[in-house]
Amino acid sequence: MSITDWPALHGDHFENTQVLITGGAGFIGSHLAEVLLQLGAQVVVLDDLSGGEVANLEPFGPAAGKRFRFVEGSILDRTTVDACMAGCRYVFHQAALGSVPASVEQPVLFTEVNVMGTLRVLEAARSAGVERLMYAASSSAYGDSEELPKVETMPPLPRSPYAATKLAGEHLLSAYSASYGLDTASLRYFNIFGPRQNANSAYAAVIAAFAKALIQGQRPIIYGDGEQSRDFTFVHNAVHANLLAARRDKPVRGDVCNVACAQRATVNELARIMAESMGKPDLTPKYEPERAGDVKHSLADLTRTRAVYGYEPIVSFEQGLKITSKWYQSVMA
Questions:
Q1: pLDDT class for 1, splitting at 50, 70, 90?
Q2: Among 314, 318, 317, 242, which residue's Cα sits nearest to residue 3?
Q3: 104 in the Ramachandran plot: left (φ > 0), alpha (ψ -120 to 50) or beta?
Q4: How far apart are CA 70 and CA 52, in angstroms?
Q5: pLDDT tens per residue across span 224-256
Q6: Element housing 134 (H / E)
Q7: Which of 103, 136, 188 lies closest to 28, judged by CA?
Q8: Which of 70, 278, 288, 309 is packed most tightly, with the most Cβ within 10 A?
Q9: What does the longest C-alpha to C-alpha distance in the chain come to?
Q10: Cα 118 from Cα 131, distance rounded (Å)
């Protein structure tokens, strides 16, 4: 996608630098891989394809030739992780099971993959002498505290097994920085959306699920009253934050920083905007009972992220939503 001038933002910092992206065939991971290849990096993608797709990599991966390598495998397999980690300067750890409702149904599986998988990635990074590891943390760690905006110093209140596993990952990163000198950075994503986000899962994220329903001429489903609000964040902002974290010239030491746009919209507003923009204003939402583990409101404070990384959102919610809606229409209509 050409809406962001990545060389203007990040120069040649990643040129000829070897990086590992776990979960790199997934939604966010594939965007990271695409941008890092544009910036001249040598990219290794590790993915077991439980949530990602090789198709996400096909438009740009093979064209990069020897600078790109895809490995199908699990972060739970230490031998595979070690082999992928060898020679890497940076690790972008995106691999995880990622659904709140699914975690309520399968808490043991989520703990094994998200916690033990993160531990194995950290161990491999420590052994390989990696310079810094960036971790896809989650705003779900804040839970349902009524205090807004969400500030990193707030006590975490995970309401789902998923949130608990992502929070455990943050603590592991902090511990590895303190105990072993492996520099780490936790980036708490707030409702990341964009092209390539899977719309076909029973647990699809709300924008993907709404797009699929509208394209198929169906009313989008809202769980609860729709007045829950989210800090919807276009995927390029998450990529930008990861690259800024990797480039920081001072140790991060496991710091947790929010990645968002610092604005929010209700799910009802989202449904209306999407229906109108996709030419389906008559398809009003259908309401179903609230789901266990869901939080009511989410809005990020970006003060720390600005101070630590110089981060500012580079694509607004409105612009990102237009791009994303057009993408779903192009691949699903």
A1: low
A2: 314
A3: alpha
A4: 12
A5: 999 999 999 999 999 999 999 999 999 999 999
A6: strand 132-138
A7: 136
A8: 309
A9: 58
A10: 17
